[in-house]
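Reopening this ticket.

The earlier resolution said the output was attached, but the attachment link was broken on my side. Pasting everything inline this time so it's all in one place.
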Amino acid sequence: MMANKILIVEDEDNIRELVKFNLMQEGFDIVEAADGIIALEVVRREKPELIILDLMLPGQDGLEVCRTLKSRKETAGIAIIMLTAKAEEIDKILGLEIGADDYLTKPFSPRELTARVKAVLRRSYRDSLQSGEMVVGKLRMNFIRYEVYLGKERLELTPKEFELLKLFVTNAGKAFTREQLLEKIWGYEYFGDTRTVDVHIRHLRFKLEQEPEIVEAIETVRGVGYRFRDGL
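Inline output:
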């Protein structure tokens, strides 16, 4: 199972390593940056689901990094937890006002940080569904406009391919039998050959082939059916 990708932006090596160690113990995929300028480049390249962002950074401080990310459409949805030694109320308010999802003051408990990371990720997932849009790695789906993008390229999916992909990404980690997929996508009245599911999955994988990570996330569960790998 692939984990959520988290970027740790912290210039103090010992703190960065402590956070990295504890989150990796929980199965998260970790990338790092030691200053704000590098952080923006890592975000562009790695597309993390969440950023643990120190306020006091060389190059560009955490507030400016947060402001930059939240002002860009392609990064505005990334969850951010601000991490700083400052305890003044004004810093917390300012960080939250420009878009941070949570705030933790040093010294902190690694267990509390992990709990907050999980809570923010859960909240971010729910919000994405309610907004009608969901981002999984380089894949972006808009459920209202029936649009699918890989990076900047829009994909042309059939209605059934779109519904299959939507079902998978919104139920990551859950295995579906072919019969269940026929029932959910084609409806109760469909009594055709279950091989039609395999054909649609094959076509869907072909259209996603430019992004192997997404293709490989649509897993065949031997003797059962299909699932979308959790934590991509």
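Reporter confirms the inline version is readable. The chain has two domains: 5-130, 133-228. DSSP finds nine helices and twelve strands in the chain.
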